[in-house]
Structure prediction request, 225 residues.
Amino acid sequence: MRKFAVIGLGRFGATVAEALARRGAEVIVIDKNPELVERFKEIATLAVRLDSTDEEALISQGINKVDVAIVSIGEFESSILTTALLKKIGVPRVITRASHTVSDIQEKILNLVGADRIILPEVEIGKKLAQSLIASNILDYFPITDKYSAAQVNAPESFWGKKIGDLKIRQKYRVNILEIRKMSLEENKIEKVNYLPQATDVIEKGDILMVIGEEEDIERLSRGE
Prediction:
């Protein structure tokens, strides 16, 4: 099981920590605010009050052994120091939340100190909303990197009754289908999930496709062009 650390329990950090814990992940949460730490004692695997810019304190709680750390600290200086320390003690992947007021220079600093990904929540939400408005067949949208995204897409009508291989999904759209959710049209619930479907599998009316690719390619696929 992958181990996570969430540092900073503001709205963003708390939401991420709760979502990870609900999915059964091992989660260590850290904050300076004792009330926030107390609230997470029965939610997270471990909830600790400490200064995330203290290297020894981080190691003492096993933060150096997590697979992913999410830094969600409002104060930019502490965010930089924490990000740098996490990389120094060997955390493989560090995701740092930046404020919408972050400058290009501050973003470059976060990259320089080792942030593997910088998240601007307002930008991510804006892109997700725009995507859903432009492409009505896209049910949900998850940016993975600056270039690639995952999305849940209603199978366009032009795909119904056809095999994946005949549609040449990968060649035509440069998109990979990770799974096909077979829906009950009468009850609007999932009947079956086909993970990593093959070229011979048929896409049917009502199917929901989980796909991964570049944004423009996903949009084209959602329209069945």
Q: What stands out?
A: The first strand starts at residue 3 and ends at 7. The mean pLDDT is 87. Residues 123-223 form a domain with the Alpha-Beta Plaits fold (CATH 3.30.70.1450). The radius of gyration is 21 Å.
